[in-house]
Specification:
This is Protein-L-isoaspartate(D-aspartate) O-methyltransferase (PCMT). By secondary structure, this protein is mainly beta. The chain contains one helix and four strands. The protein has a domain at about 15-75. The radius of gyration is 14 Å and the shape is globular.
């Protein structure tokens, strides 16, 4: 198992396709580019929703599209799209 540091939710296209992907930061919505990172019949576990509460989904790639299966409610840290600015004291 390897874990890249990836800016802006790009994933790791250089190492794709993957059998499975686990995303542990909440997303506002399912990113459609995930389909390009998965093998056919691959899957993704992903929390989707607002800061206070998300739904955990199992996404499965079938016939080059993502099927979405809700698993449970969850709470996780949101993805930060832009790094916080560093203010000097």
């Amino acid at each position: 198992m390897q874990r890249p540091l990836s800016p802006e939710n790009r994933g790791w296209p250089e190492a794709a396709p993957f059998d499975a992907i686990i995303i542990n930061r909440a997303q506002d919505e399912v990113q459609e580019h995930l389909i390009d990172l998965l093998k056919e019949r691959g899957c993704v576990i992903i929390p989707v929703g607002e800061w206070s509460m998300q739904n955990l989904y199992l996404l499965k790639k079938r016939d080059n599209r993502l099927e979405r299966q809700p698993l449970c409610r969850s709470i996780s840290c949101p993805w930060q799209r832009k790094p916080a600015s560093k203010k000097k004291p």
